[in-house]
Amino acid sequence: MITNSLNAIRKLLKDTFPEVTRIYLNTMPGEFDRPSFLVQHVSAPDQHLNKKFYNTRFTWQIVYFAPVDAVGNPDVIDQFSVANQLKTALMENMVLVSPDDGTVFHVIDCDGGPRDAEVYITVRLDADSSRPEPEYDDMQEVNIEVKEAGR
């Protein structure tokens, strides 16, 4: 399910910012493209609700690397714009859907904004899941031996 939550975030980023074509996962190469996103997994604790259901709360950090000018200064207006658009996209619907299997992730909250040459947004997603029911083989045939009294 962690992959599904990642893919739901990636889909949101692609739909909201089609002009940003590079999304890195967990680590950045020494040389990287700007503008680009980095999506980092922070945590995913499970909470057992009952025998059949459990809840997982995913925490992801999304980092946006804004374009920089010739001397390395970030485009501050672009940073503010992306931070605002990303927070709006996350909080407007409050739901992300995985393109893999349609799993629904509820947006609990998002926090952050521009800092230095990047934009840092932390988002928490919540999803409920059911445990698979055990499967049993159907009984195909019943053999009953009847003993008569006195035999």
Write a brief structural summary.
This protein has two helices and seven strands; from the N terminus they run H-E-E-E-E-H-E-E-E.
Intertermini distance? 63 Å
**CATH superfamily (homologous) name:** Phage tail protein-like
- Count of the separate structural domains: 1
What is the CATH architecture assignment? 2-Layer Sandwich
- Element pattern in H and E: HEEEEHEEE
SS elements, strand count: 7
Which of globular, elongated, flat, extended, rod-shaped describes the shape? elongated
Determine the structural class based on helices, strands and strand pairing. Answer: alpha+beta
The CATH first-level class comes to Alpha Beta
Please indicate the percent range of residues in DSSP E strands (runs of 2 or more).
Answer: 35-45%
Q: Sheet with the most strands?
A: 7 strands, mixed
What is the CATH third-level topology name?
A: STM4215-like
Unreliable segments of 5+ consecutive residues = none
Helix content: 10-25%
- Average pLDDT confidence is 91
Radius of gyration computed on alpha carbons: 25 Å
Tell me the number of helical segments per DSSP (H or I, 4 or more residues long).
2
